[in-house]
């Protein structure tokens, strides 16, 4: 069946995040327990279905509180006021976008495909701007908590396809994590794994040539 949509993961896919964890830790050097609690909580919540983003974030901060040493309210404030803004700052200073993003997206659009982002983390538009990538290049930007839950939640991938007006088999998910982004294949989507600029170029060029 003909391809009708290309969906990109964000972190680690549209940019290399090799240096990101180190600088996030340095920026939270006096609160490393919060980072550890967030990492462990994400692993616990991965793949679970949630009715809406409020339910997801309520459970995220409750889980962090259970794992860590602070209240859910403390972790909620830390996440939105410290951690997410810091992530945007680190992306702006410490990494770069994958090569030829606009060229590839324009090529997909010229072939009639829809192009979207599906990220497990919020503030995607701010991160794109930090990379000097225009958010308006994309037909849609989705954040997993608003679509059903963190990848590899099957409902999340299905909700994105439904929103784009395509069948799962007509869409390809491009991401850097097989365990999460690769969950797209379980609902009938195509999946391409990217971990470097070279792989990024190869995958996008191959898709365009085969359209």
Uncertain segments are: none
Q: In sequence order, what are the helices and strands, one letter per element?
A: EHHHHHEHEHHEEH
- The residue fraction in helices comes out at 40-55%
Distance, first to last CA: 11 Å
Gyration radius, in Å: 17 Å
CATH class of the largest domain: Alpha Beta
Provide mean pLDDT, rounded.
Answer: 95
> Can you count the beta strands?
5
Binned strand content: 5-15%
Largest sheet: 5 strands, parallel
Number of domains: 2
Structural commentary:
There is one protein chain. The chain has 211 residues and is an alpha/beta fold. Helix content is 50%, strand content 11%. The chain folds into 2 domains: 5-18 and 98-209, HAD superfamily/HAD-like (Rossmann fold); 20-94, no CATH class. α1 crosses α4 (72-94), α3 crosses α4 and α4 (72-94) packs parallel to α6. The longest helix has 23 residues, at 72-94. It is globular. 34% of the residues are buried.
Quick summary of this structure?
With 211 residues, this protein is an alpha/beta fold.
